[in-house]
Specification:
The chain has 329 residues and is α/β, with parallel strands linked by helices. The protein has eleven helices and 13 strands. The protein has helices at residues 3-11, 23-35, 46-55, 72-81, 99-107, 120-151, 162-178, 193-200, 202-218, 244-260, 292-308; strands at residues 15-19, 39-43, 60-64, 89-94, 112-115, 183-190, 226-231, 234-240, 263-266, 269-271, 275-282, 314-319, 326-328.
Length: 329
């Protein structure tokens, strides 16, 4: 097997930022990196390097310890202090690094320390190590995200659970307020669901709940709206960037999706199911925002109105920035 070609194929996925005040040093190291197949950006100053990193993620930063406007250690510290969802591997270069220099650099966030002049095979080996660390960090983050997602999923219906509402609804409201966007919440509840469990058993009821969740999801905008099981046979749909009118259309589509097709429990049993909906939302969320309990409470009141008026319908509440609520059914 051609290991050098294999390494180059892997290297093409890695972007390296080279920071050094010496044009000659940058040219030499850049040539080595490009020979190994890496994508290289370069900067002479630390501030410029930080601008590049803010604009585009780089897997690896290779920096000299003396720059035009700051030390390499200061640059490393500022890279580490910047908020980032991905890890940046930092290699420091120095012509006269003492044990004290190395210790100081590592304390400020350096992962590797190399002495000038740079040995190309050694640089290639250090970058191979960097790739392993970056890959490992990405895998760990993926596992973490998957675990977090599982914690926020309802085991039966496979939509989100109440924990997602408690965790993410405040952030969704804050974002809507920052950009003064519309925002709505829908609460829906199966009509006479207790009769399903009493007449056909809880397994049949579970099948109905799973199918309901899928029909609700199928009428949401992918990657924007999200559905959560609020408890029992009650569900919440969070609809960012959607005013009351749009949320009502979505809720009506969901209501039709539940009513129009029977729920097949077995070859000999199909059930007619209906659902009631309550909608509350803002046309423009005030910058000060509002509490999650406020909009959930208003949507819940609308749900009760829908139940009182005969079920299988949508009622709504329009919220306004002055926190004066005007409702219509």
């Amino acid at each position: 097997m051609d290991y050098e070609n294999q390494d180059q194929a892997q290297a093409t996925d890695i972007r390296v930022l080279l920071v050094d005040m010496s044009p000659i040093s940058r040219k030499l190291v850049k040539s080595m990196l490009q020979h190994e197949g890496y994508l290289v950006s370069e900067a002479a100053k630390g501030e410029r390097a930080l601008e590049i990193l803010a604009a585009e993620y780089h897997h690896v930063v290779i920096t000299g310890m003396v720059l035009e406007d700051m030390t390499g250690s200061e640059l490393c510290a500022r890279i580490r202090a910047a908020s980032s969802h991905r890890y940046t591997y930092i290699i420091a270069l120095s012509g006269k690094g003492t044990i004290k220099d190395i210790t100081h650099a590592i304390e400020h966030g350096v992962d590797e320390f190399m002495h000038k002049p740079i040995n190309r095979p050694l640089l290639a080996a250090r970058l191979c190590l960097a790739r392993r660390i970056i890959d490992l960090e990405a895998k760990l983050k993926l596992v973490q995200m998957q675990s977090q997602d599982l914690l926020m999923k309802d085991a039966l219906t496979e939509v989100y659970n109440r924990r997602r509402i408690q965790s993410d609804l405040p952030a969704e409201i804050k974002r809507a307020g920052r950009y003064k966007q519309p925002f709505s919440v829908v609460i829906c509840d199966l009509d006479h669901f207790k009769q399903v469990n009493d007449a056909h058993g809880h397994l049949a009821g579970d099948q109905v709940l799973k199918e309901v969740a899928q029909r609700l999801k199928s009428n949401c905008r992918m990657d924007i709206d999200w559905v959560a099981r609020y408890g029992g046979e009650e569900f919440v749909i969070v609809a960012p960037e959607t005013g009351v009118e749009g949320a009502m259309v979505m809720a009506e589509n969901m209501r039709n999706a539940i009513e129009e097709a029977p729920f097949k429990i077995s070859d000999s049993l199909s059930l007619e199911i209906t659902m009631s909906f309550g909608v509350a939302g803002y046309s423009n969320v005030p910058e000060s925002g509002f509490s999650p309990d406020e909009i959930l409470g208003q949507a819940d009141l609308c749900l009760y109105k829908a139940k009182d008026q005969g079920r299988n319908r949508v009622c709504y509440q329009r919220c306004v920035a002055e926190d004066t609520l005007h409702g219509k059914n």
